[in-house]
Every structure is written in C-alpha cells, then in structure tokens.
Amino acid sequence: QLLGFRKEFPGFKYSISGSAAVINDSVFSMDIVRSGLSLFGASSTNSKRMKKFKNAVTLCAPILQIKKVDKGGGVGYNHKFICQKKTFVATAKIGYGDGVNRKLADKSAKVFYDGKAFRLIGKISMDLICFEIDEELFDFLLKSGLDNQFVEIINDVQNPNNIANNLGTIPHEVLTSISNRVERVLVD
C-alpha cells in the first residue's frame, strides 16, 4: 500500500524503517532512513549485525553526600533499606524525576565509580539515589571532597540493553525516559 501511496504523491521522501529494518533488509529503507536507537548503540533486534553496535551513552550523576550508617540504620524513603552492619553510603543527584526507573533499586542495578560497581540501596526518590560504597572509596571521597565526583548509571557495562532486559522492557523506553532535567553533552 505504501508503494501505491508513494506513486500518488511523488516528490516526497519516504521511509518506513528504523534501526532494525535498515540493518536487516534494505527493501524497507526506501528514500531515507531513521537510524533511531542504533545511533546510541542499543539494539532493537537480535540480528548478528546489530550485536556489533557498541554503547554510545553514559548517564552520570554528581555525588552529593557520603555518610557512615550504623547497623540498624535506615536508608531512603521510609528507611526501606536497613543496614545489617556499619555501611558506607553515598547519595547522588539523580532520581525518577530524571528518568531513573524506580524498579532498578529492586533489580540489582549498580552505579559505577572509576570502573567499580556499587549496589543501589533504599528507594529511588524523585531527585536522589543512594548506594553502598566501600570504606576505601568513603575515605578517598572524605579526603578529596565531593566536587567533580560522579557516578555512572548507564555505561558500557550497564548499557540500555542490559537495563531494559533487567526491567523487562525495551531499550527505547530506557533512553526516552531520561528527562529534559538531564543535561546532554556530545563528546567526540
């Protein structure tokens, strides 16, 4: 039907394909293509060709606070997380208002600092996430200060495909959920 429509309205550029169709079958490409999700390295198909794409997204958040919480102390809304031992906790400035899915805290999601993974703890709030850090990082941040200290929520290890699989959704949802409160920076 599209081909018939195209004949009736010549002079326009047509496309009915996104990333998966472009990679899998050039018949769907028509005049122009909409690369979509593949621009970010996320996949929309199980194609062998798409598996070669590499993640191009990093979502970072500044660390705002660190503290030592005694055994029995709570973290997050309603103290959902109760520390079973002395726990070193960091808080970063990002939350569900920025597009971080609240279910990630219950799905073993991590944040990353200098390539090391740390688990989310407590509930994800509108503006904040909490995560357990080790004593070594706690001491480092205590000495160096928190200026220009960031954690990664999305990176090459925990990419949009992994997060989507963890949440039972699609990478499109993970990426399009990131709100306009998050600054976008294009890096070469």
Task: Please supply descriptive tags for the structure shown above.
single chain; 188 residues; alpha+beta; six-stranded antiparallel sheet; two-stranded antiparallel ribbon; elongated
Query: How many strand units?
Result: 8
Mean pLDDT: 89
The sequence of SSEs as H and E is: HHEEEEEEEHEHH
What does the main sheet amount to? 6 strands, antiparallel
Descriptive account of the structure:
With 188 residues, the protein is of the alpha+beta class. 20% of the residues lie in helices and 22% in strands. It is built from 5 helices and 8 strands; from the N terminus they run ααβββββββαβαα. The strands form 2 sheets. The protein has a 6-stranded antiparallel beta sheet with strand order 5-6-7-4-1-8. Strands 2-3 form a two-stranded antiparallel ribbon. The longest helix is centred in the last third of the chain and has 10 residues. The mean pLDDT is 89.
Summarize this, please?
Helix content is 20%, strand content 22%. The chain has helices spanning 2-8, 19-24, 135-144, 160-167, 171-176, and strands at 59-69, 74-75, 81-82, 87-92, 110-113, 116-121, 129-133, 150-154.
Structural topology:
Blueprint: H1 2-8, H2 19-24, E1 59-69, E2 74-75, E3 81-82, E4 87-92, E5 110-113, E6 116-121, E7 129-133, H3 135-144, E8 150-154, H4 160-167, H5 171-176
Antiparallel strand pairs: 1-4, 1-8, 2-3, 4-7, 5-6, 6-7
